[in-house]
C-alpha cells in the first residue's frame, strides 16, 4: 500500500517491539489497522462524493441544455430579434376587423374615352412617337410599295422596322460633342472640316 519493501516492514516491527511492550503489541496493531481502514473509508467516501458532484454537474448542465432545446421556439426568437418592443406588430394590427363586401365598396365611374390625337405633320414627329392608328381625316391613298424595298441598303441582320427607323433618323445623326472636330491641312494650315454642327 505505501510501497514499503520487506526489509522496511521488518525494521518497523523490530522498532515497535523495542518501544511497545509485547503485551501491548496486539492492541497497537489493531488500532493501527482500524486507523488505516478509517482512512481508506474516508478516502473512498470523499472520492464517491467528488464523482457524484461531477456527475450531477454534467447531468444538470446537459439537462438544462436539453430543456432549452425542448422549449426552443424559432418563431419567438426571430420575432424578438426583429421586433423586440412589438412596435411593428402593433402598427400592423387593426383596431376592429372590417369585413367589406363588393356592395360596400364605392362605385368607380368608367374611364372617359381618349381624345383623338392632334393632327400634326408626321415628318416632324420621331418615328417611335408616331400614332399607330390611321388619322381620322381622309388622306389620299398612295399605292403601297413592296414590303421591304425601302430597306434594301440596310444590313440584313436588322429587322425591317428597325432599319426603316434608322434610315429615317439618319439625317439627324451627328458626331458626339465630346469628339474634337475633324481637321485637315489645307495650304499649309489646319482647317476644321464642317461636320454639320451649327456652323462648324
What does this structure look like?
It is elongated and about 155 Å long. The protein is mainly α and 200 residues long. It has a two-stranded antiparallel ribbon. The chain has five helices and two strands; from the N terminus they run αααααββ. The longest helix has 46 residues, at 25-70. The mean pLDDT is 76. Strand 1 and strand 2 (189-192) form a beta hairpin. It has helices spanning 6-19, 25-70, 74-82, 87-92, 160-169; strands spanning 183-186, 189-192. Helix content is 42%, strand content 4%.
Brief account:
With 200 residues, this protein is mostly helical.
Identify the notable features of this structure and list them briefly.
single chain; 200 residues; mainly alpha
Global geometry: elongated
Structural class: mainly alpha
Which residue ranges are poorly predicted, with pLDDT under 50 across at least 5 consecutive positions?
none
Number of beta-strand segments: 2
Give, in spatial order, the strands making up the sheet with the most strands: 1-2
- Tally of DSSP helical segments: 5
Amount of beta strand: under 5%
Mean pLDDT: 76
Helix content: 40-55%
Distance between the termini: 116 Å
Report the biggest beta sheet as strand number plus sense, adding barrel if it closes.
Answer: 2 strands, antiparallel
Please trace the helix and strand order, writing H or E for each element. Answer: HHHHHEE
- Rg, nearest Å: 54 Å
What topology emerges from the helices and strands here?
Elements: H1 6-19, H2 25-70, H3 74-82, H4 87-92, H5 160-169, E1 183-186, E2 189-192
Amino acid at each position: 500500500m505505501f510501497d514499503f519493501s520487506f526489509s522496511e516492514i521488518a525494521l518497523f516491527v523490530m522498532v515497535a517491539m523495542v518501544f511497545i511492550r509485547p503485551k501491548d503489541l496486539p492492541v497497537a496493531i489493531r488500532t493501527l489497522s482500524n486507523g488505516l481502514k478509517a482512512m481508506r473509508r474516508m478516502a473512498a467516501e470523499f472520492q464517491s462524493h467528488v464523482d457524484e458532484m461531477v456527475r450531477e454537474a454534467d447531468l444538470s448542465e446537459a439537462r438544462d441544455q436539453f430543456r432549452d432545446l425542448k422549449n426552443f421556439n424559432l418563431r419567438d426568437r426571430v420575432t424578438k430579434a426583429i421586433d423586440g418592443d412589438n412596435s411593428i406588430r402593433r402598427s400592423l394590427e387593426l383596431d376592429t376587423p372590417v369585413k367589406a363586401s363588393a356592395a360596400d365598396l364605392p362605385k368607380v365611374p368608367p374611364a372617359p374615352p381618349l381624345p383623338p390625337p392632334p393632327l400634326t405633320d408626321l415628318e416632324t414627329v420621331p418615328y417611335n412617337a408616331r400614332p399607330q392608328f390611321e388619322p381620322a381625316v381622309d388622306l389620299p391613298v398612295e399605292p403601297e410599295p413592296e414590303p421591304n424595298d425601302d430597306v434594301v441598303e440596310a444590313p440584313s441582320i436588322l429587322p425591317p422596322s428597325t432599319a426603316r427607323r434608322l434610315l429615317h433618323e439618319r439625317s439627324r445623326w451627328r458626331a458626339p460633342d465630346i469628339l474634337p472636330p475633324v481637321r485637315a491641312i489645307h495650304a499649309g494650315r489646319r482647317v476644321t472640316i464642317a461636320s454639320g454642327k451649327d456652323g462648324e
